[in-house]
Specification:
Blueprint (H helix, E strand, L loop, with lengths): L4 H22 L3 H4 L3 H29 L7 H10 L5 H19 L6 H30 L2
Helix pairs in contact: 1-3, 1-6, 3-4, 3-5, 3-6, 4-5, 5-6
Length: 144
């Protein structure tokens, strides 16, 4: 079975579009940002979409290249790291990302909205780094 490059590109494009959308509200001054609760909900949703897309790409790559199904998203990133598709430090960041996702979905009432804004301001690079590493893999496969 081959890696579905179109699937990965589509997910990657979705992540990039969401990063652009995330960059708009995080530029607003904090006091203005929190005056409109829609800003927080927008960030939560866009971050969730990005994290889910990263996880879908991870699951696909691990299934096709690693020939295994991960037990969890964290396990998936462990698998990509073991296959040298992503570096160890990125794996650690992605596992933290998944924990953040789990809070957003399963314990959303416990999340401080300032943490959501902080996460959006400080962790978008993780998405970009992941896409860069996956891009290297795809370029190598397209040439085959």
């Amino acid at each position: 079975m081959n890696v579905n490059i179109e699937f990965i590109k589509n997910k990657g494009n979705g992540i990039r579009k969401n990063i652009e959308k995330i960059n708009n509200p995080i530029r607003i001054k904090e006091e203005e940002f929190f005056k409109d609760e829609r800003n927080v909900y927008t960030l939560r949703y866009l971050l969730l979409e990005c994290i889910e897309a990263v996880a879908h790409i991870c699951n696909h790559l691990l299934a096709k290249i690693g020939k295994k199904a991960p037990a969890s998203y964290a396990d998936c990133f462990e698998g990509l790291s073991e296959l040298n598709i992503i570096p160890v430090e990125l794996k650690s960041s992605l596992i933290k990302m998944v924990r953040f996702r789990n809070l957003l979905i399963h314990r959303y009432w416990e999340i401080d909205d300032k943490k959501v804004l902080e996460y959006a301001k400080n962790n978008l690079k993780d998405f970009e780094d992941f896409l860069k590493e996956v891009g290297k893999l795809i370029k190598g496969r397209e040439g085959m």
